[in-house]
Amino acid sequence: MARIAGVNIPDNKRVEIALTYIHGIGPKTAKDITAKLGIEPARRVNTLSDQEVLQIRETIDAAYSVEGDLRRTVAMNIKRLMDLACYRGLRHRKGLPVHGQRTHTNARTRKGKAKPIAGKKK
After folding, report:
1. Please, are residues 37 and 68 in contact by the beta-carbon 8 Å criterion?
2. I need a labelling partner for 116 at 20 to 30 A (CA). Which of 20, 69, 70, 98 fits?
């Protein structure tokens, strides 16, 4: 099992798909990495040589913010908004949708399970 950016990527998957197991690398970035290194995207991870895995690891370390660093950056950005007490920060603090979605109905993922209100039924 190849270990890249602190993540064990699965051996039996195609290289493009396996790279998306790393937080911060999506399908487009994985495609860019394989194209840049000249690795065929259809190859499986278990067919990669140690040299190719090392090249992938070095490319990701040099050019992309992934895993712990990315999570820390995102958390710090959210914390900064909350400290500023701007509208987006207040929405994060209250656990409500941040990007302008309606909350009269829906938004259950963000708000949590519906709480019944006594005397509401007619």
Report:
1. no
2. 98
Among candidates 25, 24, 6, 88, which has minimal Cα distance to 15? 25
Reported as type and span, the H/E element at residue 7 is: strand 7-9
Report pLDDT digits (tens) over 19-30: 999 999 999 999
- Provide CB contacts within 8 A for 13, sequence distance 6+: 44, 45
Cα 66 from Cα 5, distance rounded (Å): 7
The reply to whether the predicted model has a pTM over 0.85 is: no
- 14 forms beta bridges with 44
Q: What backbone phi and psi angles, to 5 degrees, belong to 4? A: -130, 130
- In three-state secondary structure terms, 3 is strand
